[in-house]
Recover the amino acids of this structure.
């Protein structure tokens, strides 16, 4: 998928997303937090793209989509469409050669961040509960995108690798924000205060 298409997908999904829980319940606050974070990354992505920084625009769009898709999968958010569109429906735009050094650096750094993040959390709910099962699912999804990103990086497809690492980290960060995980180490790499 092209970077501009990823940004458009994020904007459209944000426009359609609604919190499923009522009022001021903890679940409603968690849903609004996911929307707020995804909105911030959608805005950042537009700003990066307008400034001629497609590397950060790509990372922001996929990170925001990871947040939203985790919120939808958890049931905290609903969208009127049956299934949120997948941002991995094609090859990501190759970035200009002048951006290659930044892309390589960010891709390597994000691989390390996602690997560290996965190792730094543990499911917060008790084993045997639905919350625990979903936390394990979120951590599994983050691991799948870490694996996929590493495969893409090994094949010198750094755009796809960065997209995978950003998307996987978005899922994991949303899980932390909504209380699915307790942070055991490296708190500074998560968005919670």
């Amino acid at each position: 998928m092209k970077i501009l298409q990823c940004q458009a997908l994020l904007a459209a999904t944000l426009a359609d997303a609604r919190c499923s829980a009522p009022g001021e319940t903890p679940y409603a606050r968690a849903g609004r937090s996911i929307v707020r974070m995804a909105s911030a990354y959608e805005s950042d992505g537009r700003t990066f793209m307008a400034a001629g920084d497609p590397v950060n625009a790509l990372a922001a769009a996929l990170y925001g989509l990871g947040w939203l898709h985790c919120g939808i999968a958890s049931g905290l958010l609903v969208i009127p469409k049956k299934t949120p569109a997948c941002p991995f429906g094609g090859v990501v735009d190759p970035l200009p050669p002048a951006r290659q050094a930044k892309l390589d650096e960010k891709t390597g750094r994000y691989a390390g961040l996602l690997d560290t993040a996965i190792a730094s959390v543990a499911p917060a709910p008790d084993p045997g509960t639905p919350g625990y099962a979903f936390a394990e699912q979120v951590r599994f999804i983050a691991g799948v995108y870490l694996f996929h990103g590493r495969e893409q990086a090994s094949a010198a497809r750094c755009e796809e690798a960065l997209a995978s690492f950003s998307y996987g980290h978005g899922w994991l960060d949303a899980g932390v924000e909504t209380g699915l995980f307790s942070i055991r180490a490296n708190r500074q790499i998560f968005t919670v205060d």
